[in-house]
Specification:
alpha/beta, five-stranded mixed β-sheet
Length: 300
């Protein structure tokens, strides 16, 4: 009995004393953004399940190219993963001198969340509805300044789709992130901005949301005539994708995205947790490529 009591007293110390494996999570976007928020929430859940210490590393710039280049070419870190949007594949078509091929060098492991974009306008702009924006832009070509998170960013993609479908032109201004684009609109420096719902909701005192691009977006605003969303995925370097460690991370990621707590926390941030199988992830990537082709971003 004494031996059992001693063991029970020492057991918490033994659990704490177990060495934790450090896992690095590369995020190509700034802290506080939608992708970063999903990555950090997932990391917290992962630490509760496995003896790991998850560290998020934000490598911002060039529409994710800086982060992806480091992630793909640095093959000496077996415990490193990346959380990124499907839009990361678009760089393959936008950059002729890209030092990697995302379709060949990245291994998508698991889906994490569906991310929604919205259109916001500065409060002083006499626009309360998507249709009013289209009418004003059509009558004043190039007069409306339109901010987005940089070439290749999801907001930039949607802007290209909108312009192509409705024959509109804007004074286009690219920022380092969608967050910066919304902040600019909030300050009255630009008329409009496209960004994810998470970022837009944090700036509602200075801007208002005048349109959403998916009926699943959890916000009560007009639905525009273009449906679009993107998916946030967990990636591994293809050379590490079949290691036991990555397989274990993938298994737990799928369980996390299915959990009620994670789903509610993701929903509160303006996204939706999703669990796709390998084929559904593949089809999502192919669908995105087709959307880019229809927007004139991918050559036939």
């Amino acid at each position: 009995m004494k031996i059992l009591l001693i063991f029970l007293l020492w057991m918490p110390w033994l659990v704490q004393a177990q060495p934790k494996t450090q896992i690095k999570i590369v995020v190509p976007w700034s802290a506080g953004g939608s992708v970063d928020g999903v990555a950090r929430l997932w990391a917290a859940h992962l630490e509760k399940r496995l003896p790991v210490r998850a560290v998020v590393e934000n490598r911002v710039g060039a529409n994710g190219i800086i982060a992806a280049t480091h992630f793909i070419h640095n093959r000496t870190e077996p415990h490193t993963v990346m959380v990124e949007q499907v839009n990361g594949y678009l760089n393959h078509y936008l950059q002729a001198d890209l030092s990697y091929n995302p379709f060949l060098d990245l291994a998508p492991l698991a889906s994490m969340a569906e991310q929604y974009s919205v259109l916001v306008a500065h409060e002083s702009l006499a626009i309360n509805h998507w249709s009013q924006m289209v009418k004003l832009a059509r009558h004043t070509p190039g007069a409306l300044s339109f901010g987005h998170g940089g070439i290749g960013n999801d907001g930039w993609v949607i802007m290209k789709i909108v312009s192509r479908k409705h024959g509109l032109s804007f004074n286009e201004i690219g920022f380092k992130s969608g967050n910066d684009a919304v902040i600019s609109a909030a300050g009255g420096h630009t008329s409009l901005a496209l960004a994810n719902l998470t970022v837009a909701q944090s700036n509602l005192q200075q801007v208002r949301i005048i349109g959403k691009f998916s009926p699943r977006a959890p916000v009560d605003v007009p639905l525009v005539d273009i449906e679009h969303s993107t998916v946030i995925l967990l990636f591994a370097n293809k050379d590490m994708a079949k290691t036991d460690f990555i397989k274990e991370i993938t298994k737990h990621t799928r369980q996390i995205t299915e959990s009620h707590d994670f789903q509610q926390q993701i929903l509160s941030r303006g996204n939706r947790a999703i669990t796709y199988n390998d084929n559904e992830i593949h089809q999502t990537i192919l669908k995105s490529v087709e959307i880019w082709r229809q927007a004139g971003l991918v050559k036939p």
